[in-house]
Amino acid sequence: MKTLNKIITFTIFISTFLFAQNIFSQTSKKIIEQDEKIEKLLQEKRKNNSGITINDKFKIQIFFGNIEESKKTLLAFKKEFLQTDGTIVYSNPSYKVWVGSFKSKIEAEKALILIKKKYLSAVIIEPNKK
Length: 130
Description:
Blueprint: H1 2-24, H2 36-50, E1 58-65, H3 67-80, E2 86-91, E3 94-102, H4 105-115, E4 123-125
Antiparallel strand pairs: 1-3, 1-4, 2-3
């Protein structure tokens, strides 16, 4: 009788273990379908970004903040400094307005003197050294 109880207990334990293993196992596979247009957009974005050379020359940062203020600042800058180009760069969590493209730090410092008269928080951004 004791042996029979042990066998029944062991059988219940084994069947419970096997049943629980099936409940908690992750055997199903998910198939994610992606629209072909997304991949085309990513390729186009990569192609466009490869032509952007932001970090090969010195820049002057005149503003950082939200997108609307960045756009206003860039437009105002372009009206006042017609010969100097500018761009808005996103760096999480804010937008930055970078202007100019200077080969040397001396050129950037000369321009910074003029720009600081209007944009007091302007600073020089050095190119990344690789």
